Amino acid sequence: MMGKLFVVATPIGNLKDITIRAIETLNNVDIILCEDTRRAKILLNYYNIKNKKLLSYFEGNEEKRSKEVINLLKDGKNIALISDAGTPLISDPGYKLVKLCRENNIDVIPIPGPSALISALSVSGLETDKFLFLGFLPKKKNKRIKELEKYNNFEGSIVIYISVHKIEEILNEIYEIFGNRKVFIAREMTKTFEEYIYGNLLDVKEKIKKKGEFVLIISKSVHSTLKF
């Protein structure tokens, strides 16, 4: 009998934000795939999950490792996939593995839980009925600008992940393209120094601390015409 792949959501900051089912799954599987084995061990030790085989699974080895994992699943091993934080595959590795599982008729089971995307949206005060998730924007400025310009008239909220060393530069670019719209920024969600800022972009830009990890949500265009 073939094994199953469990896609397990883990905390985005506060280690207490995990489901009972996620803990049970991590206890029961044969192997845990993780972006960083050191970070995974912190979570596993916190919940006294011992003697688990950990395999690194990150962008650099995703293609090769996915093929290895398929063979393990075909041999009957049950495997969990976790990311460093939140729900795997959402701006994290895993797509290639899940695709291979589907192509090989291997069961893939979601173990839902924390997601920075959904957590930020839920407290943003901006429209949540329709939103566009762009994840991390391209590293090169010209590609970022081109990407952002495509969605200037999107009739819903736009969600972007931003790393600390890019926050000021990207906020400036967004102002140039979107103007002084209402925005929401979540910084270091669920962690000790979490912070949430809502307001016009220029005001928010002045208040933001350049530390940590950011989720930025841009309000919809007043004159939206872009439809999907």
Describe, in plain words, how this protein is organized in 3D.
- The protein has 2 domains: 5-111, Cobalt-precorrin-4 Transmethylase, domain 1; 116-218, Methyltransferase, Cobalt-precorrin-4 Transmethylase, Domain 2.
- Helix content is 33%, strand content 21%.
- The chain has helices at residues 20-28, 37-46, 62-74, 95-103, 116-122, 141-149, 167-178, 201-207, and strands at 5-8, 31-34, 53-56, 79-81, 108-111, 131-136, 157-162, 182-187, 195-200, 214-218.
- Residues 224-228 have low confidence and may be disordered.
- It is elongated and about 55 Å long.
- It is an alpha/beta fold and 228 residues long.
- The relative contact order is 0.15.
Secondary-structure blueprint:
Blueprint: E1 5-8, H1 20-28, E2 31-34, H2 37-46, E3 53-56, H3 62-74, E4 79-81, H4 95-103, E5 108-111, H5 116-122, E6 131-136, H6 141-149, E7 157-162, H7 167-178, E8 182-187, E9 195-200, H8 201-207, E10 214-218
Parallel strand pairs: 1-4, 1-5, 2-3, 2-4, 6-7
Antiparallel strand pairs: 7-10, 8-9, 8-10
Helix pairs in contact: 3-4
Unreliable residue stretches: 224-228
* SS summary, helix count: 8
Main beta-sheet annotation: 5 strands, parallel
The CATH topology assignment of the largest domain is Cobalt-precorrin-4 Transmethylase, domain 1
Q: Give the C-level CATH assignment of the largest domain.
A: Alpha Beta
E-strand count? 10
Architecture of the largest domain in CATH?
3-Layer(aba) Sandwich
The CATH superfamily of the largest domain appears as Tetrapyrrole methylase, N-terminal domain
Query: Alpha-carbon distance between the termini?
Result: 42 Å
Strand fraction equals 15-25%
Structural class by sheet pairing and helices = alpha/beta
What topology, given as strand order, has the largest sheet? Answer: 3-2-4-1-5
Order of helices and strands: EHEHEHEHEHEHEHEEHE
Count of discrete structural domains: 2
Mean of residue pLDDT?
95
**How would you describe the shape?**
elongated
How much helical structure, as a percent, in the residues?
25-40%
Q: Please give the radius of gyration in angstroms.
A: 19 Å
